[in-house]
Structure formats: C-alpha cells, structure tokens
Amino acid sequence: MSSKKSLFTKVDCFRIYVPDLQKGLEFYSENLGLKIIWKTETAVGLGMDEDKTELVIQKERKGQEVDFKVESVEESVEKIKQAGGKIVYGPFDIKIGKCAVIRDPWENEYVILDSSKGTFITDENGNITGQNNQENTLLENKPEHIKELYKKIKNKIIDLSKNIEISGADTHIDFRIKNHIFTSIQIQYSKIKIWINMKKGQLEDPLFLTRDVSNMDHYGKGDYEIHIKSDTNLEEIIKLIKNAYNNR
Fold it and tell me: What's the pLDDT score for residue 3?
C-alpha cells in the first residue's frame, strides 16, 4: 500500500447540464431534497445530507464533468505530467482559485481545481454575497500570538520585493515571485511550519533551524522545513528564506 499523500483531497463536485435552472431546481431541490449551497445566473451548487461533494447543475455547456479538489493546481499538474498524464487545458483562473483539465493515460478526462483565492460567502438563500480570503480562513480560530507571529513573518517576506505574490491553498500559504514558489507557510494552532523551496544540500543552515523532509510527504515545496513558535531566530529564518528567493 502506498504511503504517499493523495494528490486529490476530495471529489469537489459532479457537474451536469440542465437547459433551465429553475426546472433543474424543481427536480433536484424541491422534489429530491438536495439543499442549495450557492447559486449564480448560470449554475447552482447543491448539497447532500451525508456527503460534502456537490452536485452542480449548470446551463453553460452540455455534458457531465467530475471535479477533483487539490491543494495547488500548479503543483498538481507537474506531478500529473510526471506520472504520464496530460494537461488538456490550463491552469487557468476561476473565481475561487485555479483550474485545469486533465487526461489520464487511458483517455479519461476530468477537472482539478483549488480554492487558492478563497471560498464563497453566501446568504441564507445561497446567493453569493462575497468571498473569503483564503489567508484569513487559515488564520481563523488561531491564538492571537500565532496570528501576530504569522504577520511578522509575512511582512518580512514581502519586504524582499514588491513583486512577491501570496496565494492560499487549503492547508497553507505560498509566497512566489514570477510564478516560482520560494517558501510556504502552514498556520497551526500552537506553531507555524515553514517550507523553504531548495533541494537537499543547497541550503546553508549554520544554526540547524531546518529539518530534512526530502523523503517525507509534506505540503509546501522544497526539502527544508522549520517549526517556529516565537520570533526567536526570526531574522536567521528570514535569511534562509531569502536564499530560496535568490535561488529561483
């Protein structure tokens, strides 16, 4: 049995075509009991009682579609190509993050997506009223000292360049420059994990602040991981992150 972490985190939704959304709602929601989760002018997400997978009825295009959720579409397409799959289209932007159309070696086609831009905020009727910032979502219910520690780390990272972009996956936050992720952060309840995107043996760490995760499954990119509970050694940690930034 494989010990690798699954690339797909869940089946996000099953999309089907209906030419008339109102009639689709009458059939699936009013008659069959599926609950409205969200809706737009061209699609409605419906929920089931014992499954988080959504049934999406839509009038945008004919056909059926299976969508798998991943932590990061950009990272996932590379792994899929290495495994022998093909990228039919993408990655491209969607409202909640990024998306790509995939074909496996047996010509099965499906979609992968992430929520790096955050999830929808809806009212009681399922109308979309806004969007959660994924960074804020990952900070929810964390102690104040952890929030403040993350803010310090973030500010020091973005001080490296005005061109640094921040994007969120389901479990962590990526910092990138010109589409290259150089460090990633996971905010936990009692500590913060930092991954530095350099290969084993490339990073000089005189204080031994990092650990080697080159042979372990982990979320962020790179072979170096740091656990931090306070701002002790923060300046040295930023120097390590800067090495990855300069090594892009």
Answer: 56
